[in-house]
Amino acid sequence: MAAIPEYRRVRQYVLDQIAGHGDPRKRFLSEREISRIMGVSRLTVRYALKELVEDEWLLVRKGEGMFVNPDRCWRNGIVNRKRYRVMVIWLDGKLMTLDAFFIGILEQLCAVFKSYPIEMQNVNFIGGTEMIREEIEMYHPDGILWVRPPDPLYPEVEELRKTIPVCVLGREKGKSGFSVSLDCEAAGRIAAEYFCAHGCRKVAFVGGSPSWEIRVPMYEGWRSVFLARYGVCDDSLNLYQYSADSMEQLDHLLAGDPDGIFIFGCDYLLLDGKLSAQKKQRLRILTDENFWGTYRALNPPDAKLFLFPPEMARAAAEALFRAMSEPDYPKKEIVFQPFIRERSEESV
After folding, report:
1. What domain count does the chain have?
2. CA–CA distance, 113 with 317 (Å, rounded to integer)
3. What is the Cα–Cα distance from 231 to 224, expressed in whole angstroms?
4. Is residue 320 part of a domain?
5. Residue 232: which domain range?
6. pTM (two decimals)
């Protein structure tokens, strides 16, 4: 098993010491002292310190030693207040870029965190799954907000929860303990009821892949409504978008003239392109609230299903802060209910 590079450990240790260094006039730890404390070579320490000097965390004064840059001292000598270090982890911890969906979550988290004494850490893990907990502990977070961790990482979540609060955001209800969750089955029922209320019977459920955690319970809720209303649910209209022949399947589905389609927003432009090319008769369309999926669509949806309202991320941020700052705060699950908004109610 590959180890975390020693210079990374040294760098994080030094950054932690800088954050707690109250007086920029006081000499900082020397290269020799850090080498002794960390049990690594002075060459490794020198490599880490060189990077921190170049990034202006540290200043070297000839003949005097090393000092913390006053602009990086966080005014610790003036304001003595507990600051909470929150680590935000996206999916498996290796998400290098954030799409519009995750940017929207980050926007809401920042809207809450900026009003509290919080330092937010965004970390991309460099090692394998077996090293994740070790990497997290290296950064000494006071709490973690983990957005949709995959099932294989749940043992790590539970281990971390033995020492610090870990709030899971965006997974299906009933799976995550301390979390802000989705009622996915209810989302499927609400979507199906929307079409039934508009007289639609031949309605397709399109998009996503079988591995999506939210898709299976959504379809179960969807199917239950059509069975209860009409006594039948045509499972041939359940189309996964991520398959080798998905485009051909979508063509075949549209050739059957459905009177309605639910499609996940991340796949919306595929449907929009097909509808425009085939010049199909107008059918009722419902999509989820993906932030960019309907951008410049030629066939805008009639309504949006809000699976992940902005209030979810805000609720998670508030809950995590309270769990860190209030020892008796009950770390429980908060479940959000989806809702539908018609296009006439907003610009989509």
Report:
1. 3
2. 7
3. 9
4. yes
5. 184-306
6. 0.79
